[in-house]
Design a protein that fits this description.
The protein has one domain. It has 24 helices and no strands. Helix 2 packs parallel to helix 8 and helix 2 packs parallel to helix 21. The chain is an all-alpha fold. It is 81% helix and 0% strand.
Length: 734
Amino acid sequence: MSQVPGIFWVVVVGCVVGIAFALYLVKFIMNADQGSKEARAVNALITEGAWAFLKRQYSTIGITAVVVAILIGVLIGKLSSPKELDMFQLTAFGLGWRTSVAFLVGAICSCASGFLGMLIAVKSNVRCAAASHKGLNAAIKVALRGGAVSGFLVITLSLIGVTAMFFAFGGASHPEIAPHIIVGFGFGASMVALFAQLGGGIYTKAADMGADLAGKVEAGIPEDDPRNAAVIADLVGDNVGDCAGRGADLFESTAAENIGAMIIGVALYTASIKLGFSPMVAVGWVLFPLVIRAFGIFASLVGILSVHARGEKENPMNALNRGYYVALAISAVCMVFVCKSMFGPMTSGWAWLMGAGLIGLFFSVFVVYVTQYYTEANHGPTRDIAEACKTGPATTIVTGMAKGFETVLPTTLIISVALLVSYWFGTQAGLDIPWWISGAYGSAIATMGMLMTCSFILAEDTFGPITDNANGINEFTHAGGEIRRITDHLDATGNTTKALTKGYAMVSAGLAGFLLFQAYFDRVQLFQGVEGSMFVVNLVRPEVFIGGVLAIMMVYLFSSWSLQSVGRAAGKIIDEVRRQIKSDPGIMAGTSQPDYGQAVDITTKAALKGMIAPGLLPILLPVVIGLIFRFIPGYDAPMAVGAFLMVGTIASILMASFMNNSGGSWDNAKKYIEDGQLKGENGEVLGKGSFAHAAGVVGDTVGDPLKDTVGPSLHIVAKLIATVTLVMCPLWIV
């Protein structure tokens, strides 16, 4: 630890504080009232179903991870370049087993993040439902703090994992080498996150669509009515998809982006050593991502504790936004302090780098506002969709698609402007290195700035499924109208918080994608023995065109396979609900109880089967492309894979933007109608049971798999293809 600056100990303190705060929140949740006996019985069914699914899912993922880890170790060991082995001072076997271990540790930590996120969520659901009997503020506090357990554990685990692997593989004595060795950690986390999000997303949306279409539309009963055989499967799905899946998603996001930024920081570390700076000072370029993440934990903690509604009728989103602004303000102050402390001794241009970090924070606010505008019911886009419901499902679908496609514009502008400005700031920092590396580091700092409030954002995301389940439990147990009004509003707010989390993850993935491109190209040049020049992807070469086209095809094919998996699973659930209603008239009469377990089992099997093919596609395709072009004379395999990586990242992000925002708008348009806000030609209320409501339900069921299955999975695909290429590039470099 001789080359670690004093400020690095903030990382240790941040990890301790993050874990301690999560435990404090766990105690708060566990001490909260669980409500009536009936509510506890419903939650027991949800918990049982969620655990049954996760055990089967992670058993499948675990076996896959072990096989992949062994293959990685063997291939890396046999195909590593002599130059890289000489630089790392390792044997081929040594590099192989280290990469395999890093992969497995990343996979295990990602699994743990999913489990922990779901565990506390199912404990919070029933407590939020009970708190709603006391008022809005009590329910908000339980839901947000329950979500914050996941937020702080996931981000802290990510920080602990990357830090531990960095020092375990020689980061204290060779900080210029360790980031390259631990890229397997990001790959393992990304692979598990994709399967967790995809499997959970297929489960949750198949159950949701089945409950909506067979229950609401066909049988004319509420989605969470006890007579609906799919109700428990639907409530389980909120936890395994939105909690476990998203926890693993943001774990891998922060891990992969930290490692990518550290790899770029290696070039600055080496340059600073050559200029005569001591290793103790120069290592700041490499350690900055870890330090700033620790300060983000402190900022998010204060933000969470400051959330409080100013009245029982206040929009819950306003209370959450105030807490977010507090976290942002503290993060900005911390960014200034850390940049001055770590970069100030090495360059007089540290303020430019600080500016890049503030750009990341600034544009994260834009993401929140754009997402809220397109998905909240108080704004035009969602109300336009609700109005379209008056004329039937067709106009509902067309309008929702149009609004979703429109959201690609602001998403693109945010990513482009943030990248352009932060990159330019990096080039102005006066660093004695090639301008493209300096610019890439500016973009890396912007990404780190955007992710500073990740703990708070993830808490808001898990807030969504907790309030959704609380609303379902209240409906299932026939809570009063005023209590349902509270959880209805919280549920609608939860739809928006889930959407803005996806928007936040999507834009940060855009910035991170650029720094991961740079990390890939740096690694390729390291293998090829080329230093001091920019890696160029030549657009007129056929392998580059083919790599780009295949990347876009991969995004569409992944989306197709994922949606087909949801459709097949939903069809089975609809058939099961119909079968039970037809075979037992007592279900609709309320004299007998449906077989909830059968619906849960059907959805579980369909989700696990459906996640395999689309999950393997982005893992295998870049490797196949690299190997094919390696063995065809005259073609440049690294360039072909580089084109696949760049175009695939861009296509994934823009497709995810369309899916996330259109799905969120359809969902809240339905809730806008259910809340009695839509009026007919003569001023009559077009609420539940109306023709407009049926059209809104159809729109929601179309949007659900877009926003909760494919869209969030594409965030992971954008980073997974980067970590795959980073780890596996020795296979296609001659």
